Amino acid sequence: MSDTTNPGQQLIAIMQGPAVQAYPTFTGTQQTQYADLVAAFNALSHSAVTDLRTQVYPFPLIYPPSSVNTTIQNLKSESGRWGSVYTQIATEVSDLAQLYGFQTAFQSTTQATNQAMQGGFQTAANNINNADSSGSVSMLGILGDILGAVNILDFEDVIAVSTLLGALLSIFGSMPDSDSITGKIDQLQSQLGTLIDQANNIAGQVYADICTDWGKLQEFAALLPSLQTNMQGQDYTIISNQYEIGVYQAVLPSLLAIVSLQGTAWGPCVNPSDWNQGLAYIPSGPNPTNYNGTICSRLTTLGVSLADVCGRSAGWSGLNSWLCTSTGNGVSCTNETPTPDSNIMTITSGAITNIIYVANSLVVTQGEPYSTEVTIQQGTDSGDEWTMCILADHNGSSDVATSFNNAVGGAGYAFSPNSASTKTPGKLNFYCAVQLVINTGSGPTTSDPIYFAQGHIRFPPANNWWIGGSSVNHSGSSATLTIAGNTFIVTGGNSSFELEVT
Predict the structure, then answer these.
(1) Are 408 and 444 in contact (CB under 8 A)?
(2) Rounded to the nearest 5°, which phi and psi values hold at 382?
(3) In sequence order, what are the residues at sequence separation of 6 or more whose Cβ sits closer than 8 angstroms to the Cβ of residue 133?
(4) In contact, 494 and 462? CB cutoff 8 Å
(5) Neighbour count for residue 142 (Cβ, 10 Å)
(6) Given the DSSP bridges, would you call strands 370-378 and 385-392 parallel, antiparallel or unpaired?
(7) DSSP H helical segments within 46-147, as ranges?
(8) I want to staple 314 with a disulfide (CB 3.0 to 4.6 A). Which of 285, 296, 308, 322 is the partner?
(9) pTM above the 0.70 mark?
């Protein structure tokens, strides 16, 4: 299991992955000892089974794993009677008891998370609707278009992914079409409910997906300490607050903007470093001086920096920037939001069946215009060519390069086809993470996160792309990419990569 994935993602991989290892088969003397052990189990539990693994393990409602474990432990005084068979069975049922206990806690966590998110949504809705300034509008009543993304994985920025909660949020992110909650504002709440229902269903499958496979059960037992680390009650408050912030980030760009107007102070919505600039309603009419002080005060309470909001950074890039000036006939306003550049990169491989953008993984030079939407499309001709489009400006920085280098693992784990002698970039315009899904013959396999970045070379001048990650091996002037034991030679140009099976 890769160290680059968090415990929640590892749990998903265990649950949804192929069979690992069957339970050990008892033969000869051990088979006789096992039958004797099962008979003793039946006597204590008033059961009539012949095999624990097929008649007991898969049915936790009939045979609660903790009770089965207690029964087996009660037979410990006679463990020598069954030799190594007892040791094996005792380990199995102990791990199963932990597995079922985890599933029970997991389901409780989804319910508490549901309540926290619903609370965050309701608070946001109330504040958005608050008409505390002259001429304000009822925001929830006028939206009819797609509002943007409220991404569940944002929470992993503030909650350690090694917690039980981290596992829950990773399950959210692993669901089909879960990159965002989109739709009309009156659909956000129902979509949240659907997402929670899906999470509950998956949480209820943890035991069933693992209990019949000895290899998976051992992997789970090894992962459990990481899943249970630092579970704290305050996590639910964090979830509620972060979801509330996410609703604001999705909804407000349709109604509010960052407005600069000489001689106007935007009350509690003012930029701390520029009292002429603040978060206000999108300018309309001759007197654009309205704002929603309730929202701005609430954002401050939630720990959101108004400097970040007015700077359109840290998740607030969806807000447009308007400049208003006084004229003889009132006020003239212009939308001055920079338009980011379109950056297209292609990946060609007959083995790829899908490319999944890792939500919120796009990192851009601070202050540069960009879009949070990363578009990935499969070619219509052969289907072997995939295109990724990122909207962001071409201003590179060492900060982005340092972040990329740390994410991929440093020298030896990054490669640019037209800069093969350079082991790591010094400056980058942006980078993001994806997961490649390949067909291995025995079914689809999803890679660990693979990072693609754009930098710049001087001679000849061009914006060159990089590939990196724990699966990349850059040695000398060549590089390979390994996914589930399948190794690809990586070649390409400034904005293209070709993956050829070795």
Answers:
(1) no
(2) -80, -25
(3) 267, 290, 291, 292, 293
(4) yes
(5) 10
(6) antiparallel
(7) 52-55, 65-74, 84-128, 139-142
(8) 308
(9) no
Tell me which residue has tokens 């350079």.
Answer: 422
Q: Which residues contact 208 (CB under 8 A, 6 or more apart)?
A: 58
φ, ψ dihedrals at 170, nearest 5°: -70, -35
Per-10-residue mean pLDDT of the chain, 502 residues long, equals 56 87 96 97 96 97 96 94 96 96 78 66 70 36 25 28 34 36 40 57 84 96 77 58 75 84 85 91 73 89 92 82 83 84 93 88 85 85 87 89 92 89 90 91 85 87 92 91 93 94 86
**Rg (alpha carbons) of the chain, rounded to whole number:** 28
Secondary structure string (H, E, C) spanning 248-295: HHHHHHHCEEEEEECCCCCHHHEECCEEEEEEEECCCCCCCCCCCHHH
Taking the C-alpha atoms of residue 359 and residue 354, their distance in angstroms, rounded to an integer, is: 15
- CA separation, residue 334 to residues 256, 291, 318, 323 (Å): 14, 18, 17, 5
347 bridge partner residues: 386, 497
CA distances from 240 to 124, 171, 185, 248, 257 (A): 10, 18, 18, 13, 24
- Token look-up 């992962």 returns 223
Written as six digits, the tokens of 173 are: 């992110």
Helices 214-227 and 7-16: crossing angle in degrees, nearest 10, is 160
β-strands 496-501, 342-348 pairing: parallel
Token code pair at residue 159: 């909650």
Structural tokens at position 490: 């990586």
